[in-house]
Specification:
alpha+beta, 4-stranded antiparallel beta sheet, 7 helices, 18 strands, Porin, 333 residues
């Protein structure tokens, strides 16, 4: 059952409802949807369904309109391109209304075409000339928006790093391959805005090569990689959705692997093989840089690069230029 759920994009990523903006071409226009009257423009949370939205558009006269649905990205392209088991995904999603979606912006007029393609072209053309205003379907949506887009000095955020992709590179010229990867990097942190556009960030993160990718399977030297890091960064908001940051980072590295020693004859026939199980623990100090993009509902997508410069170990303290880099998927609240 777990594998089936993970294989269905619409079921996982879409909710049962969708928020839609409605605009009227006429001044002082209204609409009726599901027995409720709305002044236009407005934003309404509607249920996903295979049925069209039935709307009455009201000015000094009334006209009826059907707003047709379509298949959402999560259902068709998502199941094909983002899903390793697209056939299972289609089967799981086939009966759910979550696979349907309506246009995010709908223009209402008395002469709205009934044909689907003509209606879409009409709406797209009229939207170009309509002044967009930020609207909210309910108070909870407005509060969430203000929390993440109307930030003030003194605002504080907790950050949870959800399982994310990380690549590791080790400064070791004796290895056949220095690059490893994993899909299980998690962490917690907090952010404090000291101006409206700048904030400090403190992040504790565990990065591993668990659920590793094909690139890791090609390199068999390291069986287990664990990197626990603590980073302090200074971050700058460069647009409503984008921010960049830089700072210092310390790592505690735990690498478990096997080393093989062979004794050969003249004809390269192996006579003996010795295996040593090695546990290599060491500290490193370096720098971190990141870039973050705001999605919606408190979710952020980003990229982080941690460059190591100096290594502290029981054997020796020395310069060291390994690094870890990857994609971050975070939730902030």
């Amino acid at each position: 059952m777990g594998s089936l759920l993970l294989s269905s994009c619409a079921t996982i990523f879409n909710s049962k409802t969708q928020k839609v903006n409605f605009y009227g071409l006429d001044e002082d226009s209204k609409m009726i949807l599901n027995d409720s009257i709305y002044n236009l423009p407005t934003r309404v949370e509607v249920k996903r369904s295979k049925e069209p939205l039935k709307i009455q558009y009201i000015t000094d006269k009334t006209s009826s309109h059907d707003i047709h649905r379509y298949f959402s990205f999560a259902y068709v392209p998502g199941n094909i391109f983002l899903n390793y088991a697209s056939g299972i995904g289609f089967l799981v999603d086939i009966k759910t209304p979550k696979k349907y979606a309506y246009k995010n912006n709908i223009v209402l007029a008395h002469d709205l075409p009934t044909n689907k393609s003509e209606q879409a072209a009409f709406i797209g053309d009229k939207l170009k000339n309509i002044e967009k205003v930020k609207m909210f379907a309910h108070e909870k949506e407005e509060k969430l928006y203000n929390k993440h887009f109307n930030i003030q000095s003194g605002d504080f955020f907790h950050t949870i790093q959800l399982p994310s992709l990380t690549f590791f590179n080790f400064d070791n010229q004796n290895l056949d391959s220095n690059v490893y990867g994993g899909l299980f990097s998690v962490g917690y942190g907090f952010e404090k805005f000291y101006t409206n556009k700048k904030f400090w960030g403190v992040y504790a993160t565990l990065r591993t090569n668990r659920f590793d990718l094909i690139i890791s399977e090609l390199a068999e030297t390291y069986d287990d990689i664990y990197e626990v890091s603590l980073a302090l960064t200074n971050n700058h908001v460069i647009s409503p959705r984008w921010s960049v940051g830089y700072g210092i980072r310390g790592n505690y590295n735990m690498n478990h692997y096997e080393e093989y020693y062979f004794t050969y004859t003249v004809d390269d026939i192996i006579l003996r093989q010795n295996v040593d199980k090695v546990k290599n623990y060491y500290l490193t100090l370096g720098a971190e840089a990141n870039i973050q993009f705001k999605l919606n509902k408190g979710f952020y997508l980003g990229y982080t690069h941690g460059q190591q410069f100096y290594k502290f170990s029981t054997n020796e303290n020395t310069s060291y230029f390994g690094f870890s880099t990857g994609i971050d998927f975070k939730y902030k609240f």
